[in-house]
Amino acid sequence: xxxxxxxxxxxxxxxxxxxxxxxxxxxxxxxxxxxxxxxxxxxxxxxxxxxxxxxxxxxxxxxxxxxxxxxxxxxxxxxxxxxxxxxxxxxxxxxxxxxxxxxxxxxxxxxxxxxxxxxxxxxxxxxxxxxxxxxxxxxxxxxxxxxxxxxxxxxxxxxxxxxxxxxxxxxxxxxxxxxxxxxxxxxxxxxxxxxxxxxxxxxxxxxx
Length: 208
Fold this sequence. Notes:
Helices cover 34% and strands 17% of the residues.
């Protein structure tokens, strides 16, 4: 599969990072800057090698600056020979006090609430769903403004879900309701935007 540089197309592949150490530690991630595990590195290499075999080429990789995403991007970059640019707007949801906290401890200190509307900060001091949605939409816009090309975005589950909701015209999540995209380790969604028609096409989805 060759992604051609059509002057009327902007192709964006939204990819989640590989498995991180936080998964093995059973802690909340978010802004906790957890590194990749060896499994995560292998997942990134495997994904990149499949793309290499399919002759997929990216003009630019845009990555969250957290290390689990940036290292994923570096692995893909080394195999596909694509430049990387870090963008903090692609960082994961700011989950406030939960970042790095063991899940059993978090359940006791911050028990689940019955409902959290999209304007409420996460756990009192994190981002609201609206803030996350607006940041994701801004990040997508910055990629689109680069013009025609094939771009890979390497980021995190929640920010990618917010970005894809902005793409399909869905509102921000409220208490994790509404449409969600099940992106596992190194999963991705490939979308094409036609700026002349303001039309999106979701062309490929790999959960992991």
